[in-house]
Write a structure and sequence with these properties.
Length: about 260
């Protein structure tokens, strides 16, 4: 790609800003408790209860056991533990969708779908991890994404200063089990406009990429490769966050 065809920082920032605008509301919804199930993890289980109550308590116990956002165990977790949760739970789940095109081997590897989904998955998890470390300002999240995924050091506040922005985004009004998977596909549709920038993200190693050309085997190779790439992206993201000025303790955590 020639320098003439290279996307300018303003366009990259604009696309990543739209991606972050779509990701944040979904992450906010993960903390909600519309049915009052997660609130049960904060109070002792009643001894005298019916079958329906026992079922709800059982669901609450499972959510608390896996430290789902909004539960008692989540509130007790440290920033690092919460960040790891997004990588090990949601990152692992979304990576299955990223690796699935490997089922068809080289037939789909010629298309950029896996790279786009991999980029989107890393963007979703990076924003989630950043929030747990106190980076809740969308402009800072955009600079983080640009640095880790596009290898660019941008100044999003300056670029977006003259742009009319909204902190809300069209999205689900209530949490559901597949909301984060939906965020992956929505983000993929947004970031595919980055074209060649997508190749700059932390990606699978050459061995995994080669095995990804083999039908069926490519699924396993794709998963392992993308999983490792996600871990590297998060590590780089945390290094970027650590290099920023320390935030006041009062704003470090996302509730």
């Amino acid at each position: 790609m020639s320098e003439k065809d290279r996307l300018g920082d303003d366009k990259v920032v604009g696309i990543l800003d739209r991606a972050a605008r779509g990701i944040n509301p979904v992450l906010d919804l993960a903390l909600t408790d519309p049915f009052g199930i997660k609130s049960r993890t904060f109070t002792p289980t009643a001894e005298d209860r019916g079958a329906a109550e026992a079922l709800l308590d059982g669901i609450a116990w499972v959510l608390d056991t896996v430290q789902f956002p909004g539960t008692a165990s989540w509130e007790r977790a440290s920033d690092d533990e919460r960040a790891r949760w997004w990588v090990t739970r949601i990152g692992a789940l979304n990576t299955i969708a990223v690796a699935f095109p490997g089922m068809f081997g080289v037939l789909l590897n010629r298309l950029p779908i896996q790279d786009v989904l991999g980029f989107a998955n890393q963007a979703v998890v990076l924003v989630a991890v950043a929030r747990e470390h106190g980076v809740t300002n969308r402009s800072e999240q955009v600079d983080l994404l640009a640095s880790v995924l596009c290898r660019r050091e941008t100044d999003a506040p300056a670029v977006l200063a003259d742009t009319t922005r909204s902190d809300s985004a069209d999205g689900p009004s209530m949490w559901h089990p597949f909301a984060l998977m939906g965020a992956l596909w929505s983000t993929a549709r947004t970031v595919r406009a980055l074209s060649d920038e997508i190749d700059k993200r932390p990606g699978p190693g050459s061995t995994y990429s080669l095995l990804g050309n083999i039908p069926v085997v490519g699924v396993v190779a794709g998963y392992l490769g993308e999983r490792g790439a996600l871990v590297r992206a998060v590590k780089q993201g945390e290094q970027w966050i650590a290099s920023r000025p320390p935030l006041p303790a009062a704003v470090r955590r996302v509730r």
